[in-house]
Every structure is written in C-alpha cells, then in structure tokens.
Amino acid sequence: xxxxxxxxxxxxxxxxxxxxxxxxxxxxxxxxxxxxxxxxxxxxxxxxxxxxxxxxxxxxxxxxxxxxxxxxxxxxxxxxxxxxxxxxxxxxxxxxxxxxxxxxxxxxxxxxxxxxxxxxxxxxxxxxxxxxxxxxxxxxxxxxxxxxxxxxxxxxxxxxxxxxxxxxxxxxxxxxxxxxxxxxxxxxxxxxxxxxxxxxxxxxxxxxxxxxxxxxxxxxxxxxxxxxxxxxxxxxxxxxxxxxxxxxxxxxxxxxxxxxxxxxxxxxxxxxxxxxxxxxxxx
Length: 283
Prior knowledge:
Blueprint: E1 2-3, E2 8-10, H1 25-40, H2 47-59, E3 64-66, H3 77-89, E4 93-100, H4 101-106, E5 114-118, E6 125-131, H5 136-144, E7 151-160, E8 163-168, E9 182-186, H6 193-210, H7 222-242, H8 248-255, H9 261-271
Helix pairs in contact: 1-2, 1-5, 2-9
C-alpha cells in the first residue's frame, strides 16, 4: 500500500497485476449498472464495450482520495451523519470520507463518497454511502427494476484468514454472485443501521466461536483498512476473471429468463477478452 502527499492513496497487492479497488460490495452494484447499460445496448455499447468497462473497473489502478462532504451537494448528508452518530454510539471510530476517482472517471454522472469506520476491537470495518444513479442509468435501472433511485448502504466487513464476512442492507439489489471467499448476508434495504451492525457483530462472534483457531485480521489505521479492502478486491477481481466478467447464471438472473439468441451473442462478447481469448468457468 502506498500513499501520496496530495492526500490520495492507492493500494497494491503482490501476485496480482491490478492495483486494488477501494469498494467491495459497491463493485457489485456498479457492475449491475454496467450490465444494465450493456443489456439495453445504447449506441456503441455492446458486449465488448461492457467487458472493457468491467476490465477498467477491476484492472486500472484505483485512486482513493480524501474528500469533504461539501464536494457532493446532491449527497444525502443527513444519512451520512445519522450513520456516523449510530456507529460512534456503538464505539466505532470514523476514519475518513473518501472518493474513488477511478470510478468517478468511469461513471462521472454518478459520483459518490464513502464514509469509513473501524470498530473498537479493530476486527470490523464499516462503510456508509449514498448512491444516486443519474441520467441514462436511472431510466435503464428503473426499466429493468434493478434497484431504486436512491440507495443508502451500510456495509460491515471482517476478514478472517482469507475469508471476508460481509453484512449489508442490499437484499434484492446486488444480483451478482460474490466470490467463494466472501460470505455475504444481505438484509432488506430499509433495515435500521443498528440492526445491520448488530447482525454483523453476531456473525463474527459466531464464526470465531465455531473456529477459535482462526485469527481475524485487525486494522486500526486508514492504511490498514485500505490494505484489507485491497485484498478483498483481488479476490473479487480473480473471481470476475474466472467467470469471464459475467456468468450465464448471472445474466439469466438479471433477465429473469433463459437467454435469447441475441443475449447469447452478447454473453459471448462479454466473455471474450480484448485479445480474442476467453475461458470462463462453465456455469
């Protein structure tokens, strides 16, 4: 992991060509946006273009920059402040407000920021963010009924010897399968923040009681939290590569039915790498 004097930070992981992404579950949400765009095929946006965008999301060095809420006038700051009050009342510590500049460059109309926290024991990293798709993305997502105009997400993650325990209020929203290393539980969108937190804390307690030989990764600093997010990204990126960017099961789930001939062709385009190769695991 490395930081710059311009208050931005990038993270890197050995054994993987890509610098890491700062959002974990959010990547699934943005991939759904990209899938929606690809399936509706705006001019110049077919399967190959979708694959290129997914490769950019997972392959480019991602730049994480500290920001101030004032830079996001359309953000629901009351939600961010409510999340902070709720988490701090439970002894979580606020670390930073950050923006992923790489994602903002790919989706300039849909900028957002992430508020990061860590629990008192250093075993749980928490984030809160408000996602408000705009422009063509809004109409497409409404047409395919993927998720509402506004998402107010709270996500908690613990890392235990290569396994990522994730709890969030995104049930019915994130329709892409997580990698095997991620054990994800999605609660209803309207689940109170306190219930999301309590559920995750119960899950991590149960896991450690069942496997006392496993040691959770701890993080106290901003840099340590970024390193954990980076490791999660590597896991997700490898999984996306394994399924060819998008699997048949995922595409059929998004469509709600078996694929048509045109959609089969679209899937082949997505699963073909720019160099003409592509060997996704059969699904």
